[in-house]
Amino acid sequence: MGRKAYNAKGVSASGPYSHAVDAGELVFLSGQTAMNSESKTINKGNITEQTKKCFVNLFKVLEAANLTSDDVVKVNVYLTDMNNFSEMNEVYKMNFSEPYPARTCIAVLGLPLGADVEIELVAKRPCNE
């Protein structure tokens, strides 16, 4: 059986990976940064702008997999500076509603493409599909 993968228009991959892989009931989305854009003019921006762009990219991938933010069950956030935690949280709260998905936030030494935040998701297909 082959791997079923999803890729979204307007979102680039910074390596040899799919934007998302379908595992039946669960869909695993690769991490996205603000720099994973096919736009030729990439402005890194501050942590708020970067976090917003992460979600724009991730939600495009969810849409390609016929899913929405309501289907997200787990989020992993990687920050290069935990001083950005509060600002990232403000954007995060705008993208999900209660009850929020489970989440882990990890400080890392560095991220691809010079990003300050990277976010990955796991989504669960609704039972009726």
TrEMBL record:
InterPro entries: RidA, RutC-like_sf, YjgF/YER057c/UK114. GO terms for molecular function: deaminase activity. CDD domains: YjgF_YER057c_UK114_family. One of its GO terms (cellular component) is cytosol. Belongs to the RutC family. This is 2-iminobutanoate/2-iminopropanoate deaminase. It comes from Tissierella praeacuta DSM 18095.
